[in-house]
Amino acid sequence: MSTSKPDNAASSVSSGWTGMVPVDDTSLAVTDTGGPGTTVLYLNGSYASQRHWRRVIDALGPHWRHITFDERARGKSKRSADYSFEACVRDVSAVLDARRVHRALLVGWSYGALVGVHWASRNPSRTVGVVGVDGPVPVWLDR
Questions:
Q1: Could you give phi then psi for residue 113, rounded to 5 degrees?
Q2: pTM, rounded to two decimals
Q3: What's the rounded mean pLDDT across residues 6-27?
């Protein structure tokens, strides 16, 4: 995978952005570093927040476009009436759509790894790949 050509539709994004993305009955706190390379969307483990990815982002550097967000009622995101798995999967699309990203590499940790695998299976044309860190293996994956 080359970092010289962006894999996202918003390749003109070069500066960072931090703000709230409205979805359903809540708003998600999102940080987008901008950058010229492949978009990497980080998916948190349960009870984690986007701050847990800072070291990884620093280590990978500015040649990637890093997007992190706090799940519903985590970090700076707002509360919701819906904390279902399906809501978490929908939130991936909402964040990518709000940041005008067509394709992304998903990096999920623990619960986020499971969310990433499910989202990617439903959106293969929008997925560069999935990196699961310490995530459970979906039962249907071995069939």
A1: -65, -40
A2: 0.86
A3: 74
Nearest Cα to Cα of residue 42 among 137, 135, 130: 130
Mean pLDDT of the residues in the chain: 88
138 token code pair: 């979906």
Distance in angstroms (rounded) separating the CA atoms of residues 22 and 93: 12
Query: Rounded to whole angstroms, how far apart are CA atoms 16 and 34?
Result: 5
Q: What are phi and psi of 53, to 5 degrees?
A: -95, -5
Which secondary structure element, helix H or strand E, spans residue 97, and what is its range?
helix 85-98
User: Can you give the pLDDT at residue 138?
Assistant: 63
Measured from the Cβ of residue 42, the count of other Cβ atoms closer than 10 Å reads 25
Contact at 8 Å (CB) between 64 and 35?
yes
The Cα–Cα gap between 115 and 111 comes to: 6
* 100 dihedral zone (left: phi>0; alpha: psi -120 to 50; beta): left
Question: For position 41, what pLDDT does the model report?
Answer: 98
